[in-house]
Amino acid sequence: MKKTYKGMTIYVMDDYEQMSEKAASFIVAQVMIKPESVLGLATGSTPEGMYKSLVQRYKAHDVDFSETTTFNLDEYYPIEAANEQSYYSYMYRNFFDHVNVPKDRIHIPDGQAEDVEAFCASYDAAINEEIIDLQILGIGNNGHIGFNEPDIRFETGTHRVTLDEETIEANARFFQSVDEVPKEALSMGIRNIMHSKKIVLIANGKGKAQAVHEMIFGDVTPQLPASILQLHNDVTVILDQEAASEIINKL
Ligand code: F6R
């Protein structure tokens, strides 16, 4: 099903596989139209299927990333790149090790930056210079995008974040225990995300249904950071049935 609401294009797909294929198709189309595209990328469990599909399509010669540039949304802080829970490791494991994005065009926030402020300023400057053509987003149970937690100032650029308890608990599933989850992160800000030319947000599972509902039907408020997307002029939301369960009868 495809609907438009408040200017957002919303796809409700049958299941996680279809959601992942659809999201991958947006990236493939973007790179086909503009091989030198700048892609904004997300981590977490939601986009794993999308990366799997992109790797398959790359291996089938359906897409060529040799001219693309990428910027990842966020990284835990502090964390060593080599830690298998770092977003750096995630991105290489799921995507970069299997495709031909030039290594010198991959940008991931540095979880070991010594001068955090200087690092954030340089990441911000690099994003502003390149301008992201297509930004992929997931959404947190609390409505965060990137690691922009509730009550974020919308005008924030790349910054150091203290993670919400809810986010730490949600991400504990990737670690041995909740105590191992880093308490901070570096994240692109809402300003960086809103500056992207096109945004594709993906969500699956019941746990996201409420946040998806508020993102689309709620007020635009820093308490639900994803609600800012109502003000962007090119947003596509791709959901599975469960993530769409609170909105399906309202579209
Ligand atoms: C990840 C990110 C986060 C996640 C969100 C959902 O780079 O920026 O906003 O997209 O926490 O995570 P998952 O997909 O694990 O439910």
Write up this protein.
- The protein is of the alpha/beta class and 251 residues long.
- The chain has helices at 16-33, 48-59, 87-96, 116-130, 165-171, 190-194, 209-217, and strands spanning 2-5, 8-12, 38-41, 69-72, 74-77, 106-107, 134-137, 159-162, 184-187, 198-203, 235-239.
- Helix 7 (209-217) links the parallel strand 10 (198-203) and strand 11 (235-239).
- The longest helix is centred in the first third of the chain and has 18 residues, at 16-33.
- The relative contact order is 0.18.
What is shown here, in short?
The chain is 30% helix and 18% strand.
Structural class: alpha/beta
Large-scale geometry: globular
In round numbers, the mean pLDDT is: 96
Enumerate the strands of the largest sheet in spatial order, edge to edge or round the barrel. Answer: 1-2-11-10-7-3-4-6
Order of helices and strands: EEHEHEEHEHEEHEHEHE
- End-to-end separation in angstroms reads 10 Å
Q: Ions, cofactors, ligands: which are bound? A: fructose -6-phosphate
- Kindly provide the radius of gyration, computed on alpha-carbon positions and rounded to a whole number of angstroms: 17 Å
Task: Work out the strand percent.
Answer: 15-25%
Flag low-confidence runs: none
Largest sheet: 8 strands, mixed
What is the percent of helical residues? 25-40%
List keywords for this structure.
binds fructose -6-phosphate, alpha/beta, 3-stranded antiparallel sheet, 11 strands, globular, 251 residues, 8-stranded mixed sheet, 7 helices
